[in-house]
Protein backbone atom coordinates (compact mmCIF):
# COMPACT_ATOMS: atom_id res chain seq x y z
CA UNK A 1 0.00 0.00 0.00
CA UNK A 2 1.26 3.48 -0.90
CA UNK A 3 1.38 6.23 1.70
CA UNK A 4 -1.00 8.31 -0.47
CA UNK A 5 -3.57 5.51 -0.15
CA UNK A 6 -3.70 5.99 3.63
CA UNK A 7 -4.71 8.84 5.87
CA UNK A 8 -4.55 9.05 9.62
CA UNK A 9 -7.42 11.04 11.10
CA UNK A 10 -10.06 11.44 8.42
CA UNK A 11 -10.52 11.26 4.67
CA UNK A 12 -10.36 14.94 3.69
CA UNK A 13 -7.09 14.49 1.73
CA UNK A 14 -7.50 10.89 0.59
CA UNK A 15 -10.79 11.71 -1.17
CA UNK A 16 -9.23 14.50 -3.28
CA UNK A 17 -8.34 13.95 -6.94
CA UNK A 18 -4.82 15.25 -6.23
CA UNK A 19 -3.71 15.27 -2.61
CA UNK A 20 -2.10 18.51 -1.42
CA UNK A 21 1.08 16.67 -0.36
CA UNK A 22 1.58 15.24 -3.83
CA UNK A 23 0.84 18.57 -5.54
CA UNK A 24 3.23 20.45 -3.23
CA UNK A 25 6.05 17.94 -3.61
CA UNK A 26 5.79 17.81 -7.40
CA UNK A 27 5.81 21.61 -7.58
CA UNK A 28 8.60 22.00 -4.99
CA UNK A 29 6.62 24.39 -2.80
CA UNK A 30 8.03 25.70 0.46
CA UNK A 31 6.52 24.76 3.81
CA UNK A 32 4.48 27.97 3.94
CA UNK A 33 3.29 27.67 0.34
CA UNK A 34 2.31 24.07 1.04
CA UNK A 35 0.37 25.21 4.10
CA UNK A 36 -1.70 27.56 1.94
CA UNK A 37 -2.52 24.73 -0.50
CA UNK A 38 -3.35 22.34 2.36
CA UNK A 39 -5.66 24.68 4.25
CA UNK A 40 -7.49 26.02 1.21
CA UNK A 41 -7.94 22.49 -0.16
CA UNK A 42 -9.60 21.18 2.99
CA UNK A 43 -11.59 24.12 4.38
CA UNK A 44 -14.94 22.92 3.00
CA UNK A 45 -14.69 19.49 4.62
CA UNK A 46 -12.67 20.06 7.78
CA UNK A 47 -12.34 23.29 9.79
CA UNK A 48 -14.09 25.87 7.60
CA UNK A 49 -13.21 29.48 8.36
CA UNK A 50 -10.45 28.39 10.75
CA UNK A 51 -8.61 26.76 7.83
CA UNK A 52 -8.99 29.96 5.79
CA UNK A 53 -7.50 31.93 8.70
CA UNK A 54 -4.58 29.49 8.80
CA UNK A 55 -4.01 29.92 5.04
CA UNK A 56 -4.07 33.70 5.44
CA UNK A 57 -1.54 33.44 8.27
CA UNK A 58 0.78 31.41 6.00
CA UNK A 59 0.42 34.09 3.31
CA UNK A 60 1.20 36.82 5.84
CA UNK A 61 4.35 34.94 6.84
CA UNK A 62 5.38 34.63 3.18
CA UNK A 63 4.95 38.40 2.79
CA UNK A 64 6.96 39.08 5.95
CA UNK A 65 9.85 36.81 5.00
CA UNK A 66 10.01 37.41 1.25
CA UNK A 67 8.57 40.88 0.69
CA UNK A 68 9.55 42.99 3.67
CA UNK A 69 8.38 46.57 3.62
CA UNK A 70 11.17 48.97 2.92
CA UNK A 71 11.59 51.76 5.43
CA UNK A 72 11.29 55.26 3.99
Describe the protein.
By secondary structure, this protein is mostly helical. Helices cover 51% and strands 0% of the residues. It has one domain (3-66). The chain contains three helices and no strands. The mean pLDDT is 93.
Summary of the model, kept short:
The chain is mainly alpha-helical and 72 residues long. The chain has helices at residues 20-26, 31-42, 49-66. It has one domain (3-66).
Please report the total strand number as a whole number: 0
Low-confidence stretches: none
**Which sequence of SSEs, written as H and E, runs from N to C?**
HHH
Mean pLDDT: 93
Gap from first CA to last CA: 57 Å
Apparent shape: elongated
Give the number of domains.
Answer: 1
> Which structural class best describes the helix and strand composition?
mainly alpha
**Oligomeric category:** single chain
Q: What percentage of amino acids are in beta strands?
A: under 5%
* Annotation field: number of helices: 3
Question: What layout of secondary structure does this protein have?
Answer:
Elements: H1 20-26, H2 31-42, H3 49-66
Helix pairs in contact: 2-3
Amino acid sequence: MKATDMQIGGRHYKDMVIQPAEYCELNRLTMLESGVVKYVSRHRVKDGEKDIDKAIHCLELIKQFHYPKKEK
